[in-house]
Automatic annotation (TrEMBL):
PANTHER family: INACTIVE SERINE PROTEASE 35, SERINE PROTEASE. This is Inactive serine protease 35. Residues 1-20 form the signal peptide. The gene is LOC102987345. GO terms for molecular function: serine-type endopeptidase activity. It comes from Physeter macrocephalus (Sperm whale).
């Protein structure tokens, strides 16, 4: 236990054991000019049926080599993919087209594959290196407190008092919105004080007795009947968890959901893994510390080549699970890695801890969204990876538009 805690603290707070001068020179947040997305026109669409299965439907992800051979997208194609659907709490839906301003095409880098061996279709590779975060001192503090659970079974990350970033396939399979996403909720872990359940039941009983016994005005309950009822009454599971001081989820409804058209093709083409991200606006703001967005650096700019993310893996029963691993390969929009992860962790925010050059302090930022397990083609060989969608300058601009509207001032990121 002590060894596990030592490594957890080491990689969460320090993460790298390299020369300090090298750290100062290479591993900083380099601010980049962000293009601007402006809403052009908004159309009302028919309400979705919310009948899709809760799974990602892709014919075959374009692999690393495939992406290198693709021509750079033109402005019209990008504007089409970055147009977006919004689904509101009442089930109505709109499509908003956008215009891109100040965009300078970035060259497709010659990103070299590392030649990892073909693996069996698993999300946990070899020895399970995940950490279950059980200590409430970790659960309730940054950065772990930023992880949330979706009622559809995925994870997400808080990026403002009102917004959660997650994977698009957690609410939409590429053709339709999935079952359960119509009344989507977000669960935030909350520690309840010991005895809160007892206090709640006590105050409720006091109010009932003040009204005359069983809650009906003027009623009088026979003492013998009351004793029998007390013997029959058992403490609820929720009350027991609260009394024990265990964590529980505080659920908040989602006001609206934004998904890029590059993912929500609606039967007009394959959903593109590059656009597997979505933004959820909460109906009620939270008071937790949240994670800022950052532009995804290349592998060479990752401290130790490592990434980190926390989510609610299905095989660990509502436990928050943290992991870190090195990135194996990359394309301009995706990170390919073998971080141990099971279903339920998809939608988690992948983050780094780099130095802020202006304020001279270390800061964690979200640089990708964990999408899940995918087979990709590499030099004619089928390989499987766990894949994350990188936050590029254009995606940063789009998420900024979703959060702040056309008056957004996200100039650098």
């Amino acid at each position: 236990m002590e060894t596990t805690l030592f490594w957890l603290i080491l990689f969460t707070l320090g993460w790298t054991l390299i020369d300090g001068s090298e750290m100062e020179r290479d591993f900083m947040w380099h601010l980049r000019k962000i293009p601007r997305l402006v809403s052009e026109r908004t159309f009302h669409l028919t309400s979705p049926t919310f009948e899709a299965d809760a799974k990602m439907v892709l014919n075959q992800a374009c692999g690393i080599e495939c992406q290198k051979e693709l021509p750079a997208p033109n402005l019209a194609d990008l504007e089409d993919s970055l147009s977006y659907e919004t689904v509101f709490e009442n089930g109505t839906r709109t499509l908003t087209t956008v215009k891109v301003q100040g965009w300078v095409p970035e060259p497709h880098e010659n990103l070299t594959a590392q030649g990892a061996p073909v693996r069996r279709k698993r999300q946990v590779y070899g020895t399970d290196s995940r950490f279950s975060i059980l200590d409430k001192r970790f659960l309730t503090n940054f950065p772990f407190n930023t992880a949330v659970k979706l009622s559809t079974g995925c994870s997400g990350i808080l990026i403002s008092p009102n917004h959660v970033l997650t994977a698009a396939h957690c609410v939409h399979d590429g053709n339709d919105y999935i079952k359960g996403s119509k009344k989507l909720r977000v669960g935030l872990l909350k520690m309840r004080n010991k005895g809160s359940g007892k206090k709640h039941r006590s105050s409720r009983r006091s109010r009932r007795e003040a009204r005359g016994g069983d809650g009906r005005e003027g009623s009088r309950e026979n003492p013998k009947e009351r004793a029998k009822a007390g013997r029959r009454r058992k403490p609820s599971a929720r009350g027991q968890r609260a009394a024990d001081g265990m964590p529980s989820f505080q659920w908040t409804r989602v006001k609206n959901t934004h998904i890029p058209k590059g993912w929500a093709r609606g039967g007009r083409g394959d959903a593109a893994l590059d656009y597997d991200y979505a933004l959820l606006e909460l109906k009620r703001a939270h008071k937790k510390k949240y994670m800022e967005l950052g532009i995804s650096p290349t592998i060479k700019k990752l401290p130790g080549g490592m990434i980190h993310f926390s989510g609610f893996d299905h095989d660990r029963a509502d436990q928050l699970v943290y992991r870190f691993c090195s990135v194996s390969d990359e394309s301009n929009d995706l990170l390919y890695q073998y971080c141990d992860a099971e279903s339920g962790s998809t939608g988690s925010g992948v983050y780094l801890r780099l130095k802020d050059p202006d304020k001279k302090r270390w800061k964690r930022k979200i640089i990708a969204v964990y999408s899940g397990h995918q087979w990709v083609d590499l030099n004619g060989v089928q390989k499987d990876y766990n894949v994350a969608v990188r936050i590029t300058p254009l995606k940063y601009a789009q998420i900024c538009l979703w959060m702040h509207g056309d008056d957004a001032s996200c100039t650098y990121g």
